[in-house]
Automatic annotation (TrEMBL):
The keyword ATP-binding applies. The keyword Metal-binding applies. It is found in: Cell membrane. Residues 118-218 form the P-type ATPase A domain. InterPro entries: ATPase_P-typ_cyto_dom_N (IPR023299), ATPase_P-typ_P_site (IPR018303), ATPase_P-typ_TM_dom_sf (IPR023298), ATPase_P-typ_transduc_dom_A_sf (IPR008250), ATPase_P-type_domA (IPR059000), Cation_Transport_ATPase_IB (IPR051014), HAD-like_sf (IPR036412), HAD_sf (IPR023214). The lineage of its organism: Bacteria, Bacillati, Actinomycetota, Actinomycetes, Kitasatosporales. This is Heavy metal translocating P-type ATPase.
Amino acid sequence: MAPAPARQWLAPVLLGFTAAALIAGGSAWLADAWTLADTCWAVGTVAAIMPSVAWVVAALRRGKAGVDLIAVLALAGTLATGEYLAGALIALMLATGRWLDAAAERRASHDLRHLLEHAPRSARRRTGGEVRTVPLSEVRVGDLLVVGPGEVVPVDGRIEGHTAVLDESVLTGESLQVERVAGERVRSGGVNAGTAFELRAEATARDSTYAEIVRLAEQVGAEAAPVVRLADRYAAWFLPLSLAVAGLAWLVSGSAVRAVAVLVVATPCPLLLAAPVAIVSGLSRAARQGVVIRDGAALETLGRARTLVLDKTGTLTAGRPRVIDVAAAPGHTPAEVLTLAASVDQFSPHVLAHAITDEARARGLPLVQVDDVTEVPGRGAAGRVDGTAVTVGRRGHDDTPLPGWARAADNRATLDSAAVAWLGKGDTLTGAILLRDPLRHDAPRTLRRLREAGMERLLMLTGDRAEPAREIAAVLGLDDVHARQTPADKVAAVRAERERAVTVMVGDGVNDAPALAAADVGVAMGARGSSASSEAADIVLTTDRVDRLADAAGIAVRARRIAVQSALGGMLLSLAAMAAAAFGLLPPAAGALLQEAIDAAVILNALRALRPDRTALPTIEPATEQLLQRFAAEHDDLRAVIEAVREAADHLTDATGPQALDSVRQIDRLLTDRLLPHELAEEHQLYPALAPALGGPEATATMSRAHTEIHRLARRIATHLQLADANHGRLRDEQLDDLRACLYGLHSVLRLHFAQEEENYFSLAH
């Protein structure tokens, strides 16, 4: 087979020449110049023989005797028997198949080539008041760069100055523009969709995200895919079978023309090229989803994988801690606790401090001025607010017993496998902030889709403690979990799984790189993962969404199925045509036309792998996607309401006086003003919009039933308050058990309902 650059020009030239020869011969035949017609057709045949011989020799040098040999024999047979028209048709068929293959490969790899064309080659560097354009190779860490409107972010760095608006669709596959505020890290490859901004370089061009993606894209190809080798194995028996049928037809009938006719219809050179076309099409489709696959072999192997091994942190979880609860001492509020803690922690580089500060800002809490800020590594931060000492972090190692509210918070942290940041004001514990690395919203749906794609065994390897690992495994329905794993342990576990079945490993950290390399297919979370894991991986997810792995698996399964279908289907049609030719029912010229149609059909069928699988995920209209994003944002705002419901129930356990009743009144106001309007809007706006995509209103019926239960419990709580007002503002003893049950029940229903919506609906938004 000719090298790729040669195929690009040889295919159209050969197609043009053979078509011209066939047309010229046809024109001469119509003019009764039969000798000239045969000459034109013979010239076209000879023109096709020469490159065909070169393709056969190239295949033999690689130890393969492909079906190009049948094409050479068929062409030679038509010349020997004087079937010049059949020879010209075979030549046109061969040239058309090669041209179709080249065109399909160009079309299939369009998105991957776009990555290469999109790569930046220069940057604008600011030095003092001067801005100069310099080659990208001269950019160094710490340089201040200017990115103008429409320009590509040249290297990884942090935004300086004002907010930047970026189009990161080349990296992530998502069309929505994103805003990056000052101090936020951005990856190279995004396009500035707003005004010019300044970027402080944090990596050289070679070490930046986009350069790594380009290096992977440059390696993409389908030549080594096992399914292509499967096509070669088909040729290993198809070639002798074709020769045997042709020889038998000649022997039985005594007609060499029949043998030539058999060889003509057994010339499926472009037929078996349909397999790599399908694989390359799958690679292109995956690239559109923000998944860069190193080569066709990785795609094909992913399509037949049966075991999936996952890291926990950064893969199944968000990879960064998040505030899940805020507990306050009597006389204080969660908002006050979070405000003070964030005000002190805003100066700390610690990851938990960032999580606390981010949560306060997300809730719109104004931070207060803090003086004399200090930090002790491993203990926390301290400062003075209005002259009072405030500390945030771990408790001291004294034997002072914890008050009841603090014991409850400490117990919740243990049960939830959460870290605790204690807030001290003076010498008194004032609050506790619970933090945990949360499960990704799209993780449950992703794992369900992977099982549908053929994954039979799902297990998790993590260096974390056993308790949080087992909890996540239980929530996701994993088949096995191994905790406290070292990199060497992970490698051993992956190798053990490979002994049982084709195994995929997914990870994002440096410690995952050896296990990724040990797996049949390694998948790196490249959006925030380490470059080491990306280098070791066969597949890189360029967007921070684990559900892209399910997309890639679905694409791989479909591309492999189409590849095998195209190869086998075309060969079965050729076998039927060979039988007809052997019995003299199909003359060489007609057989050549039939084979042309078969080859074109199977290559076009292989190109179906470029199109999305309509059964994979529901198609969401843009207006519905905006609704999903709106309600997802409201969920984040309403988490404080859910926490307040449980805190009110806790207060009823500790006391039944006016303060406890006030907390219930506050819950009633929050439910009436914020949560219930949100649920009603979901019921009457979001669910009807989702129904067409999900197959009808029954798909959201379970969630509607949850809305009904939420409203029932809210009305019951309101009724308890009316009874208390009728009793001079005091709760009756007989009310307490039921009111506590209502509050705790509402808290549980809301948590489950929010989790189900985020998993089933909000994860549909791109």
